[in-house]
Amino acid sequence: MNKTISIGIIGGTGSMGRWFKDFFSAGGHRVLISGRTTDITYTDVAKECDVVILSVPLNAAISISKDIGSLLRYEQLLMDMCSLKEEIVKSMIGSTKAEVLGTHPLFGPFTDSIKGQNIILCPGRGERWLKWIENEYTSRGAVVYEMEPLTHDRHMAVVQGLTHFITICMARTLQKMNMDSDTVLSCSTPVFKINYNLIGRLFAQDLDLYKSLISKNKHFKEILEVFVSVMDESKFALLSDQDDNTTLFMENIREFFKDSCKDSLKESNKIINALYS
Ligand SMILES: NC(=O)c1ccc[n+]([C@@H]2O[C@H](COP(=O)([O-])OP(=O)(O)OC[C@H]3O[C@@H](n4cnc5c(N)ncnc54)[C@H](OP(=O)(O)O)[C@@H]3O)[C@@H](O)[C@H]2O)c1
Prior knowledge:
Elements: E1 6-10, H1 15-26, E2 30-34, H2 42-48, E3 51-54, H3 58-68, E4 77-80, H4 86-95, E5 99-105, E6 118-125, H5 128-138, E7 143-146, H6 149-176, H7 181-186, H8 190-203, H9 207-215, H10 220-238, H11 243-257, H12 260-275
Parallel strand pairs: 1-2, 1-3, 3-4, 4-5, 6-7
Antiparallel strand pairs: 5-6
Helix pairs in contact: 3-4, 6-8, 6-9, 6-10
Bound molecules: NADP nicotinamide-adenine-dinucleotide phosphate (NAP).
NADP nicotinamide-adenine-dinucleotide phosphate binds at residues 11, 13-17, 35-37, 55-58, 60, 81-83, 105, 108-109, 206, 209.
């Protein structure tokens, strides 16, 4: 395979698109980008590039994949970077004869380097470009995992859906308690400061993206049901008058996480120390 590849990023004017434009350009590839107002259209990108990447919101990605699918040749790759994979991988496979690959970089556009970052690959059709992209990512330090789209989306219902849901609920609670930033910062512990920054981080960014990570994941309702039942269970166990019950409840959870708790303690100490350095 030719070492210098032409890569077209549809949505290359957006934050992830710009990040990957720089990444692939630094890898020596020719990168073309299109947005809704650029002179280069997504049709141009589809016709001209070896690798065509959809880096747009999910609904737009599905619709664009249908528009450009028939323009692509067998030897090209159609790939996406959407945060949910079932619908878009199905749509890409149905729309084209080209090779198809779903990908999800598990990091955002503020990340300095790809080193150590996880990227999920959901193979759709073909092996040739799959090996190429694996090499592009792993040779520069990323950690790549292959996964079925359904498995990916189920995991993301927890990793993204539940995480952001809890952050929003925490923010709403602070709002209801009228705990403004001055009050919060004057009595923050390091752990609370981190949580508070994570709240600000979410609300400083595109709310539609966060909303869609929760509401468009069809597995989230099931996860939420588990979470709500766990809240009741935890309320009962932690507010119980019998100390033994509370201890057993906590020990039972610790048993599940085993030695990873010690690793997490070390990792979180690094975060705390970095916060005050
Ligand atoms: N942000 C993250 O942390 C992150 C992480 C992993 C994956 N992702 C995924 O990456 C994709 C892009 O996210 P992003 O954060 O880069 O979003 P973004 O900054 O809002 O950029 C969106 C891009 O899509 C284009 N676009 C928006 N609506 C469109 C439409 N209806 N038709 C055609 N193009 C449209 C925009 O073009 P204009 O120039 O015309 O506005 C822009 O180039 C999403 O699928 C997201 O789920 C995001």
